[in-house]
Amino acid sequence: MTIDRDAVRRVIDLLAASQAGEIEVEDPERLIRVKRRDTAPVAAPVSAEAAPAADGEAPAPEPAEPVAAGPQESLQYVKAGLVGLFHHGRGPDDQPIVAEGDSVSKGQVIGTIEALRKLTDVVAPCDGEIAQVLVDDGEPVQYGDELFAIREEA
After folding, report:
1. Which residues contact 11 (CB under 8 A, 6 or more apart)?
2. Does the pTM of the predicted model rise above 0.85?
3. Is 46 part of a structural domain of the chain?
4. Residue 100: pLDDT over 80
């Protein structure tokens, strides 16, 4: 089997022009899947203080419900790896897998994203406790959207 380099380049260009995390193109002869390399950090610590605004600039708005992290706590944000509809359960009409305050283990399924009628698991990146659920069930999500904040176990 030979690789159609032009087809691969077109799929790469399509991914580069979108906000999707992955694109898969299939025809009877081949399957081409291209994934975006994730350069963003998986976890971002929550700062208790906002940076001072430069003269003439309005301060950035505060989030409606920030997750407060104590000095010994570390929060990991679970981000969407693809574009689709987020579900708290295994599917559109299923019960939520986890809720705020639940303990989770690294690799545990904590939700799903539906894209092109295919469900993709969302898994916990670490052991810890669900500090905050950031997305409603059935809500559209984009690549990189934060779905959960997990308070990491020490």
Report:
1. 23, 25, 32, 34
2. no
3. no
4. yes
